[in-house]
Structures are given as C-alpha cells and as structure tokens.
Amino acid sequence: MAIAWITQIIYKSIKRKLNNMKISIIVPVYNVEKYLERCLDSLINQTLKDIEIICINDGSTDNSSEILKEYAKKDSRIIIINQNNQGISVARNNGMNKAKGKYIGFVDSDDWVDLDFFEKLYKAAEKHNAQMAVCSIIRLNEYRNKKYLQLKNETVTDDFREKCVILDIPQKSYVWNKLYLKEALDKHQINFKQGVYYEDLYFVPVALEKLTKMVTVPDTFYYYWKNKDSIVFQK
C-alpha cells in the first residue's frame, strides 16, 4: 500500500513537471568538441528554467559524445539521443519527436545564445498569443562579428509578406533565431526534409506561412558562429 502511494506521488510529480515544460531546445551535435561547451553553457544557464535540452549526437567521432555525457550528469534537463550519422535534418526531426515543451527552439552546437534568450522569446509569445517569436542575429567568425539581422522593435503581425520582409526571407531563412509553438508545427506536419541541402530554406518559409501570429523580440541575440567545419558544411 505504501509503495503504491509513493509510486502515485512520483507519477504525479513527473506528470506535473512535463505539463510545465515551457520549451524544448533541440541541439544537433556532430564533431563540435571545440565549441560544444560554449553552446551548452549558454543553455543550462538560461534564466528560464522550465526547459529541456535535447542533444542529438549524430554519430560524432570526436570527443563530443563524452562532453554531452558530462553535462548530462550535471544537469538533468539534458537529454541525449544517439544516432548513426544521418545528417542534421534527421537529427532535428528526432529531437522534435522527443520534445515535450509547449514551444520548440533550435540551437546549432557551434552557436550560443544570450542567457535571457528563451525567457524573452517565451514571454513575448505568451503575451501576444503568438505561434512564433523571433530575435536578432549576430554573426561571428575568428576575425570579426556583426549584427546580421537586427530587430529593434517589438512587432506583431500575421501577414506572411510582412513576416518575410521583416526577417529578410529567403536570404536569412534560419531556423534557430526563432521559437515555434509545437502544437502548430504538429498540426501542419512541419518538419525537415531529408537528403536536401540548406533544409532551413524549406522549413522556415512554410512555418511563416502556416503559423499565424509572429512577434519580434528586441534586445536579445542568437550568436551564429561562421565555422567552416560546422555541420552545415558536412552535408
């Protein structure tokens, strides 16, 4: 009787935790041992705590797998999915299938975000009942950095053409400076096409068209590391 009672308490606690999951962050990982800790540090230290960090190890042959294991020991919010090398589209789709959050965000494993990044996007989406929230991008490499997409004001729109103008689509069709309502992605069956180059060019315009209201979020940034060895160039 006591065991059944304890089991019920544990079950309710787990269920409550899942129901409170605000964001699932999906991180494809492939041979990024030089950059992975920087990425994970920016995620585990987010000011928004009700998140899960789903890391898909896409058959890495360097020390990336060990780094993931060490971080998972330190932070129970990190979930590791191991798969044979199948590319970033399969990795992201597998992460989306595992996601339990109300919203989904993507971070590439050689990039990082401001510590208030997901809190600001989440609060803006909730405030305006938006299915997407987007922020500015800073692009960096070993020589320089620059603001690659700068959103100075909070703008709310459900007009597809206006969304494309604001975000400079298709030129800057990046999946990762955005937050997406999972229910809407599931409803419209939006995922990543396998076996294609620049898979974001399909995903982002479809999401902008099918997901209704979008809000732009100033004063927080996604840091895009222009890495010649990144997973983008491994496809």
- How much of the sequence lies in strands comes to 25-35%
> Given the structure, what is the number of helices?
8
Share of helix, binned: 25-40%
Radius of gyration: 18 Å
Termini, distance in Å?
55 Å
Q: What is the strand tally?
A: 10
- Runs in which pLDDT lies below 50 for 5 or more consecutive residues are 9-16, 230-235
Gross morphology is globular
Structural class: alpha/beta
Query: Main beta sheet, described?
Result: 10 strands, mixed
Helix/strand order, N-terminal first: HEHEHEHEEHEEEHEHHE
Mean pLDDT: 90
Question: Any descriptors?
Answer:
alpha/beta; 8 helices; 235 residues; 10 strands; disordered C terminus
Structure described in brief:
Helices cover 37% and strands 25% of the residues.
What does this structure look like?
There is one protein chain. The protein is 37% helix and 25% strand. It is an alpha/beta fold and 235 residues long. Helix 2 links the parallel strand 1 (23-29) and strand 2.
Chart the SSEs and their pairings.
Layout: H1 2-19, E1 23-29, H2 36-44, E2 51-58, H3 64-74, E3 78-83, H4 88-98, E4 103-106, E5 112-113, H5 117-128, E6 132-140, E7 145-149, E8 156-157, H6 160-167, E9 178-181, H7 182-187, H8 200-210, E10 214-225
Parallel strand pairs: 1-2, 1-4, 2-3, 6-10
Antiparallel strand pairs: 4-9, 5-10, 6-7, 6-9, 8-10
